[in-house]
Amino acid sequence: MARPDVVCLGETMAQLVPVDGSLSGALEFRLFTAGSESNVAQALAQLEVAVGWVSRLGTDPIGDRVLAAVAASGVDVSGVRRQPRRTGMFVKDPAPAGSSVYYYRDGSAASTMSTEDVDRALSHRPRMLFLTGITPALSDSCRAAVRHAMTAAPAAGVAVCFDVNYRPALWRSHPAGAAATELRELAAQADVVFVGRDEAAEVWGTESPAEIRALLGQRGELVVKDGALAAFSFYEGDQAQVVPALPVAVVEPIGAGDAFAAGWLCGRLRGLGAQASCRLGHLLAARALGSPTDQLGPAPLAASERAWLYAAAVGSSWPPKTA
User: pLDDT, tens digit, for every residue of 259-298?
Assistant: First the structure.
C-alpha cells in the first residue's frame, strides 16, 4: 500500500438486495458490498483521495466478491487479510422510510480483527485512521483493536476519525450500559467525531449538540448530523456552525451517513473549512440517498460532477442554483 491519506479499518459484508419489490415477494436479487468503513473508503476513492481499507475476509467466494468490488472502486485493499472462515452477509428489505435488515455475521472473519490489524493500518503512515463504533461491538478482540488504535495512532502521528455508528442490535449481548460507556470513551479520544443527534439521544440520553460536546469534552472536532435538517460542525472549543442539508428524494437512507463522512473528510483533507466541508458532506449524502445500495453508485463520479461538488462547497452561493 502506497502512503494513503486515509486508512479505513472495519468489517465489510456481502449485501443481498431484492431487485423487484420487497424481500418476501422478490424473485431476483443483486449482490453488493456493505460496510461503513469500506463505504467511506469507496466514496473517498471516487473523490480521488488516496485511501486504503484494512479488514479480514473469509476465503470463501463471497470474500472474493467483496474484495474485488472494493478494489474496483480504487481503494487499496492490500491491507486485507483472508482467513478460513466465512464472510459475513446480510439481506436487505428496502423501503423509502427505512429498510429492514437481516444479518448473518456471527463467527465471521471480520469478527477476529485484532490489534495486529491496527498496527498494519498504521504502518502505512496515513494522515488519518477512520474507525466506527460498529467494530468494538463485534467481539472482544475487535474492541481491543479499537481501544489500541486510540493510543497507537497519536503515537504514530496519525489523526483518528471516529463515527459513533451506534447499532443497538450489536450491543444487546453486552452488559447493560456497555455501549454508552464504550462509545463515549472512544469518541472522547478521537480527533474527529461524527454522531447522529438521534443516536446520541438513544445511547447517551443527550438532547442537543451542545450536550454532546459537553459529554465528550473539548478535544478535536465534532460533527453532529441532524437527519434531514442540518449538520452541526463544532470546532475551536464550543463554537458551532450550522449547515442546512439538501432536499432530496430518498431512494434508500442507509449509507448517507457514510457518504457525508467521506465528503466532510475530503473537504478537510483538501484544506476546506468546517462549513465548506459540511456542505461537501451534504452533497455526497444527497447522492447516496438517491442510490438503492449503501454506496454512491456503481459508476465513478464524472469529472464535471467532481468539479460541481467542489465549486458548490467553496462557492459563495448556497445552495447551488445549477448542477
Answer: 899 999 998 998 888 888 888 888 888 776 655 555 555 4
Cα–Cα distance measured from residue 81 to residue 121, given in angstroms and rounded to the nearest whole number: 12
81 has which bridge partners?
Answer: 56
Residues contacting residue 8 through CB under 8 Å, at least 6 positions apart: 37, 38, 40, 41, 44, 51, 52, 53, 54, 129, 130, 131
Contact between residue 13 and residue 55 where contact means Cβ atoms under 8 Å apart: no
Secondary structure (3-state) at 144 = helix
pLDDT tens for residues 84-136? 999 999 998 877 676 788 889 989 999 999 999 999 999 999 999 999 999 99
Give the tens place of pLDDT for each residue, 17-73: 888 878 888 889 999 898 999 999 999 998 899 999 999 999 999 999 999 999 999
The residue written with cell numbers 478537510 in the block is 268
Residue 163 and residue 176: Cα distance in Å, rounded? 21
Full strand arrangement of the beta sheet holding 128-132: 51-54, 6-9, 128-132, 159-163, 192-196, 221-226, 230-235, 239-244
- Specify the amino acid at residue 90: F
Q: What is the DSSP letter of 114?
A: -
Amino acid at 284: L
Q: Give the integer Cα–Cα distance in Å for 135 and 149.
A: 12
Active site residues: 258
